[in-house]
Write a structure and sequence with these properties.
It contains 5 helices and 10 strands. It is globular, with a radius of gyration of 14 Å. It has helices spanning 2-10, 29-36, 68-75, 84-91, 136-142, and strands at 19-21, 43-51, 54-61, 65-66, 108-112, 120-123, 130-132, 134-135, 146-150, 153-154. By secondary structure, it is an alpha/beta fold. The longest helix is centred in the N-terminal third of the chain and has 9 residues, at 2-10. A hairpin with a 2-residue loop joins strand 2 and strand 3 (54-61). The strands form 3 sheets. Strands 8-6-2-3-5-9 form a 6-stranded mixed beta sheet. It has a two-stranded antiparallel sheet with strand order 1-7.
Length: 157
């Protein structure tokens, strides 16, 4: 159902036909990179948080992690990730298929600058086995409820 919601949403941008579904799971950055045949950093992972009692999604390069100081500077609160149950309810996709397309009303979406060094990236497409390849411009244009670009990530140690 979630993949169909994503495809329906992406129709307005003529991107729905580019959603790919795989036999195996692409639920983690590593699995997605392996199944697609790309580097993990080109996976556009969607991280979800609660900010002032509202769900927020940060889409970042797959090799990055949230920098708590940068996050607090940007949002004025400590980074608090949503639970799996909250993701399903508040975002509208299950963990492993979370993406900024076909999401629930009221979710604010931010794109992290870590994505900007890639010509194309691979966000999930609503299920643990679905992805779409798109340019950074297409991602920015099609990300539902997109607010702005942020710099809230760092490379893991």
């Amino acid at each position: 159902m979630s993949v169909e919601n994503v495809k329906n949403y992406l129709k307005q941008f003529a991107l729905d036909g580019r959603v790919k579904e795989f036999e195996g799971s692409s639920a983690t950055v590593e699995l997605a990179a392996q199944i697609i045949g790309t580097q993990p950093e080109r996976i556009a992972k969607s991280l979800t948080f609660m900010v002032e009692d509202k769900p927020v999604m940060i889409v970042a390069a797959g090799n990055m992690k949230i920098d708590n100081r940068k996050f607090k500077d940007e949002f004025q609160v400590k980074a608090k990730m949503l639970t799996s149950e909250q993701v399903d309810t508040l975002i509208g996709h299950s963990v492993g298929g979370v993406c900024p397309f076909g999401i629930n009303e009221g979710v604010k979406v931010y794109l992290d600058v870590s994505l900007k060094k890639y010509a194309t990236v691979f966000p999930a497409a609503g299920a643990h086995n679905a992805v779409i390849e798109m340019s950074i411009e297409e991602l920015e244009k099609s990300a539902q409820f997109f607010c702005k670009w942020v710099d809230v990530c760092k490379l893991p140690c």
